[in-house]
């Protein structure tokens, strides 16, 4: 059963899709800032947070999980906001349910398949995790990539509690995902693309590819100094353009 939290509100529905190894709680800054205007729903992606995982899956499967959650809530139309891996899911939602998705916002994300060299490096991290556990050195590496200089102490507690065999499954989903570059032109809803200038996982070119190919995409919003998990690390810069976009399009 996919875990979710319906934060309520009488405005248009917006589903918030979190980053790799995070959960719906990473959107606390957006829930606080945008909950007055939108009905916000946070979803824990398979194997993350309180959502179980029982084997291999794809981000297309996750998109269908999200649709099932929204069906359960009686939500027909919605906007999707996704950070990093959440952006992968948001774009897939726009492709499989164009009649339901009113808008998407993707932050620190990519439509390309994972670079083979990067994928190999990530697999190496997974091997270290499986053989040595979540050591301080390993968590330092992951935190540097994902949240930069932000305090990672609360996140580390969650990562240390994550079953070691689950990390391998989640990493495979991440690095083996299919690319969407040749399908972005099919996304018919408005799109907002935000990217951090200090994103250590994806260069800004990944954001520019999305903005150039999605027909109704706005120009990339570049957050100077912004880290990879942009919605969490840089909410003061993210929330105003996100609110404006969702107000106009959700």
UniProtKB/TrEMBL annotation:
GO CC field: membrane
Species whose genome carries this gene: Kutzneria buriramensis
PANTHER family (UniProt xref): HYDROLASE, PUTATIVE (AFU_ORTHOLOGUE AFUA_2G14860)-RELATED, MONOACYLGLYCEROL LIPASE
Gene Ontology molecular function, alphabetical: monoacylglycerol lipase activity
The AB hydrolase-1 domain, residue ranges: 12-118
InterPro entries: AB_hydrolase_1, AB_hydrolase_fold, AB_hydrolase_sf, Epox_hydrolase-like
A single BP term in Gene Ontology: acylglycerol catabolic process
Protein name: Pimeloyl-ACP methyl ester carboxylesterase
């Amino acid at each position: 059963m996919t875990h979710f939290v319906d934060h309520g509100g009488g405005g248009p529905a917006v589903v918030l899709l979190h980053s790799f190894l995070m959960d719906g709680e990473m959107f606390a800054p957006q829930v606080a800032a945008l909950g007055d205007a939108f009905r916000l729903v946070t979803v824990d992606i398979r194997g993350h947070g309180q959502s179980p995982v029982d084997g291999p899956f794809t981000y297309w499967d996750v998109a269908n999980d999200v649709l099932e959650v929204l069906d359960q809530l009686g939500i027909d139309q919605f906007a999707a906001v996704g950070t990093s891996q959440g952006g992968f899911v948001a774009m897939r939602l726009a492709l499989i349910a164009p009649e339901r998705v009113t808008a998407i916002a993707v932050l620190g994300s990519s439509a390309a398949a994972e670079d083979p060299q990067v994928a190999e490096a990530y697999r190496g991290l997974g091997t270290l995790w499986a053989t040595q556990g979540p050591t301080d050195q390993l968590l330092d590496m992951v935190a540097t990539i994902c949240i930069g200089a932000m305090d990672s102490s609360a996140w580390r507690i969650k990562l240390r509690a994550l079953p070691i065999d689950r990390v391998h499954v989640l990493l495979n989903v991440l690095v083996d995902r299919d690319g969407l570059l040749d399908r972005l032109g099919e996304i018919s809803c408005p799109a907002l693309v935000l990217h951090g200038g200090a994103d250590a996982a994806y260069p800004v070119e990944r954001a520019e590819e999305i903005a150039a190919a999605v027909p109704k995409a706005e120009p990339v919003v570049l957050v100077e100094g912004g880290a990879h998990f942009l919605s969490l690390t840089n909410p003061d810069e993210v929330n105003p353009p996100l609110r404006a976009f969702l107000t106009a399009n959700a």
